[in-house]
Structure formats: structure tokens, C-alpha cells
Amino acid sequence: MSVRIAVGAQWGDEGKGKIIDLLSSGADLVVRYQGGANAGHTVKIDDKKFILHMIPSGVLNKNTVSAIGNGVVFDYDSFISELDILKNAGIRPEGRLFISPYAHVVMPYHKEIDRAVENNRKTKIGTTFKGIGPAYQDKITRCGIRVVDILDKEYFPVVLKSNIDSKNQLFEALYGEKNKFDFNAIYAACLDKFETVKPYVKDVSIMIEEALENKKSILFEGAQGTLLDIDHGTYPFVTSSNTTSGGVCTGTGISPTKIDSVIGVMKAYTTRVGNGPFVTELFDDAGKHLSEKGFEVGATTGRPRRCGYFDALIARYSVRVNGISSLALTKIDVLGGLEKIKVCVGYKYKNEILKEFLPVSNVLEKCVPVYEELDGWQEDISEIKEYNDLPANVKKYIDYIEKITKVPVEIVSVGPERNQSIFK
Ligand code: GDP
Ligand code: IMO
Ligand code: MG
Questions:
Q1: Does 61 sit in the ligand 2 pocket, CB within 6 Å?
Q2: Mean pLDDT of the chain
Q3: Is 3-102+200-262 in CATH node 1.10.357.10?
């Protein structure tokens, strides 16, 4: 029995989907705790590739129960289209996939508002346009609509009407567009779609309590990454939820005393999609190498991901704010072929050398990386199954990361497939 959290240690897209799928074979319950359909978690099984936005990556393991906690903003369109994808692939999630009645719902107007706000913002965040910010905004300002509210036939039309009236007023005031959102159309479509959602609704906190009582193993699936956290990330270039391990307790209703360990999913280099500071970003051939060999294209938006060297300050920060107890080091195969590999060990800021990461974008924008250099390797490591069979320079790179983070590497991922994983 174990209760673990898998959290993204950088700016998202670290390979959480792959690692969660891998670890889910030893988990009875996999639970998402925050974010929404802005996530794009890729799981490759043989010749099939699944990109999951809403449904936990544990769903591909038929012995695992998956749940979406109250901290997630629930996108029913995404949920329904993923159900179809799973069913077409012969995967039956009925009876082992659940959604908390207390999750807030992303409504169609949230997506429109996301787009309008972003398009009218001077400094663009580069959001995924999935309605995440506006949905969390309604939650925090206490006018949101939860799954349980949509299932309440009397309450839903009242709360929806009030929301649509106020969004229409706001839209007209800000953008001059009248009656942007139509109550009847949204109401009818939503009720219709919730007929599909209804059988999956179940109290996730109670499910977790029962799982704990029955000594089951639970794995919490983080979405996005530490530096996109609303509190600990590179504000304002962040998402609107607590992506870090702390989000698990509020986002699912589990007590912090029940959590045993936190595995940080960390890319062997760094990527970022969307805007904001990125101290080790590369614009040279090494950056091109990472981008091309790593197929660094956003799983949700198809945008190219910005690429850079591994940043030890980010890694240590992530260990600190999440309480990371072990690492899944991913995509280390992608570094193969580089003559030298740099690791950032400090930031030159004005006349100082900073040794600790700080979540202040306007300072980070002015930081210049201070690098140490390690020898690269030329071998293809993607088929290696045993740690000891890895080339010496790969092991040196891993040792180096363990030394600077003071955290052991538990899994070395050398390719996108389940079996391209080495347990150290
Ligand atoms: P997530 O959002 O953290 O789940 O990550 P994404 O799925 O958005 O992006 C990770 C990408 O890298 C996906 O295309 C994965 O199939 C792929 N991937 C995961 N682990 C590895 C690895 O160790 N090596 C390589 N080459 N690709 C990997
Ligand atoms: P996974 O779970 C990478 C980024 C967006 C944007 C910022 C805010 O696949 O790792 P939002 O739509 O959340 O308001 O966008 O956050 N972003 C991600 N980047 N991986 C993700 O998820 C992301 N989810 C959001 O690009 O910069
Ligand atoms: Mg992703």
C-alpha cells in the first residue's frame, strides 16, 4: 500500500502521462487533483498513442480506477470526446472512472472569455484557450457552477441564467458585443451532455477514504508543472491552479498525513510552451537538437515548445516546494548526440550570482545562466533496459542530477513507451 503524488517539476510536459501510466500498474486508484483540459498527457502503448486532457492517465490500465477530484475544472466536452477515443480503442472505463460532484465545470462562455481576455491583454500569457482561468475565477469569486449543480434540475437553470446575464453584461461593457451568450442553447446542450456524464459522478473524497481503509495504493496525477503553479510559479505566466503537491489535499479531500511520497517528473532538459521567462532557453543548434529529437510540440495546442538546458535552480526549487522524495528523469535519450551538455548552476543578475530560483518573472527575464559543462554521449540508449548498461556519461549525468537535487533518481525514462523505462 502506498500513497504517492506524481508532480511535474518544471513547466509541464515532463512526461507525466508516460510515468503515471507506468506507475499505475501498481496503483489501485489514480486521481487528478487540479487543472483541466489544458493538460495534454501522452501515453504510448505499442503502436497506439493516447493524448489525455481530462481523463486520468491511469485509465489505460484496466485494473486501475481513475478519478477526477474536486480541484479540477471539469471540461465535459473533452471528457466525452476522450470517452469515445477510449471506447474506439476497446477500453471500457465504465465502473472505474469517476468525477467528483464538487468539481467546478468549464462552461462554453469560459472558453470565449479566455480567448477575449488573452487577445486583449498587452502581455500575453499564451493560454491554451481551454477556459481554465475564467472557470477558476468564477470558483474563487463564488459564482461558479459545479457538477452537482448541473445535476440539480431546479438550481441549475437559476444559477446558469444569473451567470449568463452577468457574462453578457461584462462582454458588452468590455468588448461592445451584445447578448454574446445564449441561455437556451447553453442550457439545452449542457443538460444533454450531462446525461453522458451522470453515471460517472461519485464522491472522490469518500472513494479515497475507502481505498485507504482497504489498504489500496493511490497515485495522484499532477497536471502542468511546478513553475506554472499560481503561487509558486513564474507569475503571472502561470496557470490558475496549485499544480504543486500541496494542491492534492484541497483538490481531492485527502489529509496531508496520509501521503507517503512525492515523485517529481523531471525532463533531463527544460521546455516551456507559452510565454514567460526561461533562463536557459536556447536559440542555437543545441536548442534545435532538443526540439527536433524530442519532438517538442505541445500536446494540447500543437505549438512548438521552447527548449533549453537543465536548470539546477529549478530542480532544487521544485524539490523544496513539492517535497519531492524521488525523481523520474525523462527524455534523457534526447540528449544523446550532443558533444557537451550544459547544466545551469546559477543566475547572473546585475552584479550578483543567484543560487536559488525565485518566482519573480521580471527578475528572471534579466538573468543570464551560469553553466557547468558535462561530457555528452553518442550512443542510442532508447533500447537499454538495465541501469548498468547505460553509457558511463549517461550515468555521470544522472549522478550529477542526484547530487545537485539531493534526491535519488528512481526511474530513468529513455523513450515514450512503457517498456522504455529503467528502474534504478
Ligand atoms: P506530460 O504533459 O507531462 O504528460 O507530457 P506530454 O505528453 O505533454 O509530453 C511528453 C512527450 O514526450 C510525449 O510525446 C511523450 O510520448 C514523450 N516522452 C515521454 N517520455 C519520454 C522519454 O523518456 N523519451 C522520449 N524520447 N520521449 C518521451
Ligand atoms: P501538462 O499537464 C505545458 C501553460 C500554457 C500557458 C499557461 C497558462 O500537459 O503538462 P492556461 O490555459 O492554463 O491558462 O495557460 O500554462 N500550460 C501548460 N504548459 N503543459 C501543460 O499541461 C500546460 N497547461 C497549461 O501554455 O503558458
Ligand atoms: Mg503535456
A1: no
A2: 97
A3: no
Instruction: Please list the active-site residues.
Output: 13, 41
Q: What are the b/e assignments for 85-109, b being 16+ CB within 10 Å?
A: ebeeeebebeebbbbbbbbbbbbeb
Return the residue whose CA atom lies nearest to atom 26 of ligand 2. 274
Pocket of ligand 1 (CB under 6 A): 8, 12-18, 40-42, 44, 299, 330-331, 333-334, 413-416
Ligand 2 mean position to 37 CA, how many Å? 9
pLDDT average, residue stretch 144-160? 98
pLDDT single digits (tens) 200-211: 999 999 999 999
- In degrees, rounded to 5, the angle at the alpha carbon of residue 297 between the alpha carbons of residues 272 and 273 is 20
Atom of ligand 1 nearest to the CA of 334: 26
Report the top-level CATH class of 104-196: mainly alpha
CATH superfamily of 266-423: Adenylosuccinate Synthetase, subunit A, domain 3 (3.90.170.10)
- Per DSSP, what are the bridge partners of residue 29? 65, 218
Residue ranges of alpha helices (H) inside 122-272 are 132-140, 147-150, 155-175, 183-197, 204-213, 247-252
CB-ligand 2 contact for 37 (6 Å cutoff)? no
136 Cα–ligand 2 center, Å? 14
Can you give the pTM of this predicted structure? 0.98
Q: What's the CA-to-centroid distance between 13 and ligand 1, angstroms?
A: 7
Q: Domain segments of the chain: what residues?
A: 3-102+200-262, 104-196, 266-423
